[in-house]
Amino acid sequence: MSDKRWLMLVVVLSLLVMSFAGVRAQDEAAIAAQPCDEPGALTMWVWDENWALVIGSAIEAWKADYCPGAEVELQVQPWGQYWDLLKTNVAGGDLPDVFNMSQDRFFFYAGNDALLDLQPYYDEAGVDTSLWGSGMIDPYRWGEDGDLYAGPVNWDTIAVFYNKDLFDAAGLEYPTADWTWDEFADYAAKLTDPEADVYGAAVYSEYQTGYPNWIAATGTTPIVDAGRTQCTLTEPGSIEALTYLKDLYDQGYMPSISILGGASADDSFNFWLAGKVAMVAGGSWKLPAALEQATFNWDVVKLPMNPETGRSRSIVHSVGYVASAWTEAPELAANLILYLVSDEGQKFFADAGGVAPANPAMQERWVESFGETGVNIQTFVDALQDSQGVTVFDEIWDKINTELVVNIFDLGMSVEEATQQACEFIDTQLPQ
Amino acid sequence: MWNVFLNQFGRTPLTRRKALWGMALVAPNVLGLMFFFGIPVLMAFATSLQQWNAIKPPVFVGLDNFTRLAGDAAFWQALGNTAKLLLLTVPVEIFLALNVAIMLNQRLRGRGFFRTLYFLPVVTSTVAAAIVWTWIFQPRYGLVGNLLAPLGLRDQPWLTRPDLVLFPIAAVTVWQRLGFDMVLFLAGLQAIPRVLYEAAIIDGARGWQRFRFITLPLLSPTTFLVIVLSVISGFQIFDQVYIMTARTTRGGVGGSATTLSYFLYQSAFVQSEFGYASAIALVLFLITLGVTAFQLSIQRRWVYYEAGER
Amino acid sequence: MNVQAAEQPPAYTDLSVPLKIVTYLILAMGAVVMVMPFAWMASTACKPPAELSTLPIRWIPQNPACIENLNRLYRTSPNFSRYMLNSAIMTVGRTLGQLVTCSLAAYGFARYAFPGRNVIFALCLGLLMVPFQAILIPEYLLLRQLGWLNSFAALIVPGTFSAFAMFLLRQAFLQIPLELEESAMIDGANPLQILRHITLPLSGPALAAFAVITVQAAWNDFLFPLVAANTPDTRVVTIGISLLQGERSTPWNLLMMGSFLATVPMLALFVMLQRYFIEGVAMSGIKG
């Protein structure tokens, strides 16, 4: 092992210790799977074939090692229709026993008492739920005692992907993790080259990769507060972040949504892959695509710090497993979920690469699964430290994801007016 | 009693027998349709009197959903958008499809090839269509932007500006339905007996006259079919909104691209207001039914049936 | 029949050369727009990952990867052929079923007066006027009640009834001169025999249109099969393709390869059937 790698490992380990207080000794599992009381039959829903492959092999191992005789009918649904199908089934009084859940959708199902409270099962198995970062699991808490209703499968964080070749061409040093918004703006200006049709940056896009990260860095909870009681877009922190981004856009350092071809993170990222923009905000889930598709040299770096707060903050999102409140085999469903979030179950995710497993004991294994890439993948693990959990929910998703950014970054509406409009709508959707 | 009932079927044994045959012939399809689609439609209409989020038990609310609908600006906007799209698409679509079908009915080299090309949109994947049409209207690198550049219309945000977005949606609607209508028109053109044209040529009728006095009237049953179907589907434009706005505003800034069926979908599956969504469906149904009934009632003024129907 | 007909002179006089050139020009211009999305689909199906996000759009891949993408598609979705087969079963079942139910009904509506005929016809058309999203849940509940979820019965049986095909065939039957049918009736043929031996054979182009549209609609049906029968054994190809797209990743080349494979049978069918959109031979000799 080279000195550099050795040093990195030390950094990794110390960061892990810092971010997850109470990490266990190496030979003891952070979360241990347990044998099931009584085997039975479960139905389970997941989206997309790749997940089905990974989860399918994990379930096989569970059946072999912890619950012989159990049957799991694993059903794959298309991601694009997953939530519509779930509502169709729930309308018929059917819900799969175990299914994948997203933080912005959790609210609806938990609020209508459709989900099984997993807290008693975690307590019984002696799982210390504080082991997962709060941004990862707080959105899955419900009820007066803040019981945890989900098992987190994975996490993803946001960082800046940058095109090294364009930095070299402009004669610029590569950015480092301690950079600030001012430096970012400076880089964006210097990297913009209208004649070559190259933009400096594209970082404002939809919710998870876009402007909410910048709002979070000011210390304001983006869009709505954690209790879903009020819209925060008109607060000074939100205005500050959006105004900063709009300035970059107005100066011509960032392309408009029409030029990008869409408001989604994918549109910005594809623009970056095409070599048309030097710096893009991207999620950890984009690593496989970037490794496979980029035709230039690149690396990732933390989001820049807000100069006043000194904070660089990433939105963190975690897909969870939940169980139906109406399942006939709650013990078994909880046992399967416990296995899937345990060290053993999470190995399948760590080794598959791409999806970062939620279990903190698996972080290093996940980083290593990419092999020798020359890319600072650890950046995404580091971004977990001061991360911001998801607070938005389904009913306002489209509006804040697309309309707000289109108004500001395509149609030229002022930040004040656009946020005012968005808040007026969000207020009508907040639970009373 | 029985006789009174039977008498409705006609006064002579022959007409009575014909009526029974008619009912027997239509029975399988009509009963099948009523069972597999009529029942769900009735269930949906019943839901329009309820408040229901799909999880909690439904609550009967009478006509509340309808009074709310009447006062909902978003509903009127969606209705307006739907009407605008109908006016933008149906005439253009029928005009183009008829012309393409007539051109492709000529003895032209490679007409089979061209027919296939015009049919392609019907089978092209919606996702691919979404990507390419977004690109076509992309202001910087797109086709439309570059074509309109000489007019100073480059860099127009076609897909996001509320006053422009319906045009791309109309374009993709026409694009998608053209091949479909063409198939129907081609079949209709073939049903016109050739001898009529031959006779007309002998009588010295010019091309335009032949078109006006033979093709148009004899094609009218097909034209009627195409108009009725495109109006019905025009009231339900959904995919096209998705195609053009999925990557930008999902229904347009301030609902500027939201059609009735898109509004219905959002009410149901995004807002979880299934009663309200069903009320929208019922209103949409009644409007479409009214327009279609009107078309059926005026058809005898312009639709020519060989067998002298009705 | 088509061979014979192809040799017949066309209904119109031949176009003059300038008119022909104009016609070709117009057709070609329109065709470019018609083809573009399809071309993108085909070219993306053969792109290696590194060429997926080039700007401006690259229409012809520099390093075509058709075979690799095909292999990768089958690696991600090993049952893809099975999905195609399921789609074929569903399509054939629905089309044959509709051919029977809808031609009978169309014939009944076109030729036989009975009480309430117009109302019943309008009611059937009315079913086309409710967006499917509105009846998604009731449809699911109905199939569940029947115990048909995840079965081929759910995929096929409801689809054997159609208001659209009935309307299409009714309009076509109404274009056929009555005299022929009447003479057969005098000879003592019953309505089924007349339909089978006279009306249907005279409706060649309309039946071709029916086939193209019905087959295509069944093959591309997505929402109904998704609600009715999405298990590995009954999954149809449209769902199979959509499963390739994840929440976080869209493998465009595989997605387009799948779409392309699913499109090929439809195109082949159209190329075959479009030859029937030439004048019906029998028709030309009838009236005069």
Cα-atom radius of gyration of chain B: 24 Å
Number of strands of chain B: 2
Mean pLDDT of chain B: 89
CATH hierarchy: architecture of the largest domain in chain B: Orthogonal Bundle
Helix content of chain B: over 70%
Question: Major sheet of chain C, described briefly?
Answer: none
Calculate the mean pLDDT score of chain C and round it. Answer: 87
Q: Report the CATH topology name of one domain in chain C.
A: MetI-like fold
Could you list the spans of chain B in which at least 5 consecutive residues all have pLDDT below 50?
A: none
Kindly provide the name of the CATH class of one domain in chain C.
Answer: Mainly Alpha
| Helix/strand structural class of chain C | mainly alpha
Query: Termini of chain C, distance in Å?
Result: 21 Å
Overview of this structure, please?
The complex is a heterotrimer of chains A (432), B (310) and C (288). By secondary structure, chain A is of the alpha/beta class. Chain A folds into two domains: 29-156 and 317-375, 3-Layer(aba) Sandwich (D-Maltodextrin-Binding Protein, domain 2); 158-315 and 393-429, D-Maltodextrin-Binding Protein, domain 2 (3-Layer(aba) Sandwich), CATH 3.40.190.10. Helix content of chain A is 43%, strand content 12%. Chain A has 19 helices and 13 strands. In chain A, helix 2 links the parallel strand 1 (41-47) and strand 2 (71-77). In chain A, helix 2 runs antiparallel to helix 15 (343-352), helix 9 packs across helix 10 (236-250) and helix 15 runs parallel beside helix 16. Chain A is globular. Helices cover 71% and strands 1% of the residues of chain B. Chain B is built from 13 helices and two strands; from the N terminus they run H-H-E-E-H-H-H-H-H-H-H-H-H-H-H. Chain B has a two-stranded antiparallel ribbon. The longest helix of chain B has 35 residues, at 13-47. The mean pLDDT of chain B is 89. Chain C has a domain at 77-243: Orthogonal Bundle (MetI-like fold), CATH 1.10.3720. Chain C is built from 15 helices and no strands. The relative contact order of chain C is 0.15. At the B-C interface, helix 2, helix 4, helix 5, helix 6 and helix 8 of B face helix 2, helix 4, helix 5, helix 6 and helix 8 of C.
